[in-house]
Amino acid sequence: MSDQTGTASWSDRLFGGFRKTSERLTDNLSGIVAKTRLTDAQLDDIEDALITSDLGPRAASRIRERLADERFDRDADHRAIMEVVAREIADILRPVAKPLDVVAFPRPQVILVIGVNGSGKTTTIAKLAHLFQEQDYSVMLAAGDTFRAAAIGQLAVWADRIGVPVIKGPEGGDPASVVFDAVKAATDQGIDALIVDTAGRLQNKRELMDELAKIRRVLGRINPEAPHDVVLVLDATNGQNALAQIEVFKEVAGVTGLIMTKLDGTARGGVLVAAAEQYGLPIHAIGVGETIDDLRPFDPDLVARVIAGVA
């Protein structure tokens, strides 16, 4: 966003959103001070604290190594240690901070959105559509989660609210048929981005895999490049369970990128770092609130400093 007021308010929301996470990390690391070097015992304590703060063992180990190499100019206080932590978190996040760009030619860019029920998937689709609208892209939604009447209705309400067309079928209908109709309509109307909601059932992985494979086959007949993106929506309040979801959906759906939501409602925002370090998948955007403009691409350096409490 170029608007300075908007940028400032987004920064404020980031601070508020990650407050619980940064407070948890700060509390876990309080009382650690060093001379020019941290001792092995202190490094152990820091590594444990980072894992407890949901940054995950791989990121914690990496940060520990960085701190072990650090020679502080003078007695290191908490702030000096957290500055190093922030720099290392930023190094982890920078390679994965990749906004979702609409680049497909011919149009539309087809984006399959997946995620377990309750992850905020449908709301995130609306927020993503709004983000594209702000960039002057035309958007269409497709209600491919045909197994829940509530999902079809909710998506239709959001489509009406933000003023975009939605293609839907009957409850219990064939999702691939809905997607076929949506791609055809989006192509005919010259739509830039088609965002497809999909079923969020993980109880039967084989069933979901078969369904997504059928959607892919249908898409491939219309446009061999589609889907251009398979985006997994993760609820940050799930902490380490969110990482397990990445593992499953990578196998089942061929995930190409992530969106992490509900970072404002949890002390587990460190899982953003764990996901980046463990999987290296692009993180297209983060959500830190309930309003329509609370989903944004993120600045990895700012987010790292906010998480570490040194922004």
Overview of this protein structure:
- The protein has 12 helices and 8 strands.
- By secondary structure, the chain is α/β, with parallel strands linked by helices.
- Strands 3-2-4-1-5-6-7-8 form an 8-stranded mixed sheet, sandwiched between helices.
- α10 links the parallel β5 and β6.
- α8 runs parallel beside α9 and α10 (240-253) runs parallel beside α11.
- The two termini are 20 Å apart.
- Residues 1-6 have low confidence and may be disordered.
State the helical fraction: 40-55%
For the biggest sheet, the summary is: 8 strands, mixed
Gross morphology:
elongated
Instruction: State the assembly state of the protein chains.
Output: single chain
Class by SSE composition: alpha/beta
Summed over residues and divided by their number, the pLDDT gives a mean of 90
Rg (C-alpha, Å): 21 Å
Largest sheet, spatial ordering of strands: 3-2-4-1-5-6-7-8
User: Helix and strand succession?
Assistant: HHHHHEHEHEHEHEHEHEEH
Proportion of residues in β-strands: 5-15%
Unreliable stretches: 1-6
Number of DSSP E strands:
8
Instruction: Report the end-to-end length measured between terminal Cα atoms.
Output: 20 Å
Query: Number of helix segments?
Result: 12
